[in-house]
Amino acid sequence: MLGLVNGAFYAMLSLGLAVIFGLMDVVNFAHGAFFMMGAMFTWIGQQYFDLGFWWMLLIAPVLVGLIGVGVERLMLRRLRGMDPIYGLLLTFGLTLLIEGIFRSFFGVAGAPYNPPDTLGSTLNLGFMFLPSYLAFAVVASVVVCFGTWLLIERTKLGSYLRAGTENPALVQAFGINFPLLVTSTFAFGSALAGLAGVLAAPVIQVSPLMGSNLIIVVFAIVVIGGMGSVVGAIVSGLALGLIEGLAKVLYAPISTTVVFILMALVLTARPAGLFGRDR
Fold this sequence. Notes:
Layout: H1 2-24, H2 31-49, H3 53-74, H4 84-106, E1 122-124, E2 129-131, H5 132-154, H6 156-166, H7 168-173, H8 178-200, H9 212-225, H10 230-250, H11 258-269
Antiparallel strand pairs: 1-2
């Protein structure tokens, strides 16, 4: 079950990365920091403002999304048209800055965050006892991922996004505000990371380092699914979470490297990823 929970978090984080890369060609290394901020804001809301989980489930992703707006407008926008390596270096530096700020205030020790009382029970499935919160986290993640897929693949706004990835100049020629579309996309991808952080807070220790411990694995998952592929991000995230969980049961030492082994195999056979397209 833990593999499915991890897979749900992987899918949400990979989805945000894929959406941002698909439209902006930015490898957003700060995505892990946005994930961490979602969890940290949730913990801060409870400790200092007496705001429960359900309030922070709404507030934290909005705050992270607004930070994403600032990052795109003040920093990434200046790099548009340049080599993607500059965006990677900028977001890597931004990650170190954000982590340093939170470490200076809260240290590096993890802090527990209890799930809401309404989800504190345990479900008896017959073959196992499942904490209600874990079931909620998985279902919520799957619903968000499916909703995002519907938004991108089945709506007019999604058609603008897909067209923007192919030909930004043509999209602007039809009167669409492409810079606003880019900002909104980055904010949405950042908010997805923040939402994943909120959902992860009751499952793992909340810490300023929690994002950096996860982002490398998420990058590998995005590469396996195909850079910029929404379906690839969702399917690969869920599948690799399950594979990782199965590896822990069968042969624990390989569980931390199985994702990278699969990435090497996929890139050898299909460099664009399982669902990616050759550029």
